[in-house]
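Intended use. Records like the one below are meant for learning the mapping from a protein sequence to its folded structure. Do not use them to infer anything beyond what is encoded.
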Amino acid sequence: MSTWFRDYVYIPLGGSRKGKYRTYANLFIVFVVSGLWHGAAWTFVIWGAIHGLGLMVEKAVYNIKRPWFTKIGFHKQTFSNQLFFGGITFVLVCLAWVFFRANSLGDAIMVAGGIFKDFQVSHIFTDSIYLIGFQPNEFKVVCFSILALLVAEVIHQRYNLLKLLNRNGIVLRWAFYFVIVFTIIIFGVYGDEHAQEFIYFQF
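Structure written out for the chain above:
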């Protein structure tokens, strides 16, 4: 889908060939249109617009932040830089998902407003965090899963997991596949009446 929007929307609009302001506008239009592709609703339009605005701001401040970050050693390749901007991207994407998932614009505004209104730092250190919808054991599984994914990502960036597996014997490869399948079977949710249908089934 991203390739289609690049070839049939972004490039025909002028891409990045007609100045920086036109580039910002083209990026914003592409993301808004991608929101409309998901459905003719304001929730999807805002979802696309949030991503478009985020990318516009990132490109607009890049030349401003680069000399300052260079002076303090805050380069892209450093872990601190990746952690900082990765965190900003994560928060922005999660906020956008509120609008994407909501049944109506009113519901999205209510949820987004509640996030900032009811949040307290003390909740992080108490059981109140489980009110998000997790039980204590579920929360531990989520934390472990996120940590496992981060470790896998670091290993993949350094060694390429697929090539690393292919260099080993068939026994080790199939043992690895078995662990993955077994983990999905153990922690997966199947046929639960409270389980949410995969969101992209509606598109």
